[in-house]
Amino acid sequence: MKKDTIIVSFTTWPKRDKFVPLMIETINSQSLKPDKVIMWLSEEEYPNKVIPQYLCDCVAKGYITDIMWTQSNIYAHKRWETQKLFPQAYNITVDDDILYEKDFIKDLYETSSKHPNCVTEWTTRLNIYEGNKRIDINLFDTEFLLRNQFLSGLACFPPNLFPQDSFNFANIRDEYGIKSDDAWIRAWLVKKRIGIIGVHNIENKKWRGIKGTEECGNWLINKQINENGVQGIVKNFANSLIVINAIDEALKLWPKFDIYGCSDINIEKI
Fold this sequence. Notes:
The chain is built from 9 helices and 11 strands. The strands form 3 sheets. A 7-stranded mixed beta sheet has the order 3-2-1-4-9-6-10. The chain has a two-stranded antiparallel sheet with strand order 5-11. A two-stranded antiparallel sheet has the order 7-8. It is an alpha/beta fold. Helix 6 (181-192) packs across helix 8. Helices cover 29% and strands 20% of the residues. The protein starts with 5 loop residues before the first strand and ends in a 13-residue tail after the last helix.
């Protein structure tokens, strides 16, 4: 029996919220139940806090235990607000477009409880860059590394690990990385030297996306190539590092870890 608090957080928006009942059913069917399932919404997107009936039904069934609101729309960053409220819990962030396997929470919790000083990813792999081209290397190790892939929708933060001071830079976050919470959080993991450990090799565990969601996601924007030929998510990541005064720390680690870029990328031009 678990004795720790486990909280699952997610966000959605009007173009995608119709998929939430499918996703949330897989969370409700977990072999290890969370203590809370929090849905974060923006008052800008849901005026007067009016939500569709199918979301109300999810609440009525107990699949969603809490609805939290932000006044402004900060996109996927909304779900990280849970870390302010419950920093001592095991905080798991999920996406609204994935069908989660029944042992998803169990896998994350068991691994995270053994590694309290790093972030746990349900699946991961190495991300490196050669010039401006990202190469995904499907290597898997029990080590926790800064260069392991970080995906917010598959992540677990153990108690008191999340970099709370990142909230003090919300204005910078909104300017440079408003549509890339993966990049923003990764920047702080680098700054704090918080490693990432995976439960499964991404080659062996393929998470299932919900059909139809791929056409209305922020990943389409993050995939765009900017004028220097660098993927948009890399641009956001590099800018985040610069503006939080972490670039010196990152560059010291760059040659060793190859995290989200290589030394041959000119950061000043990104």
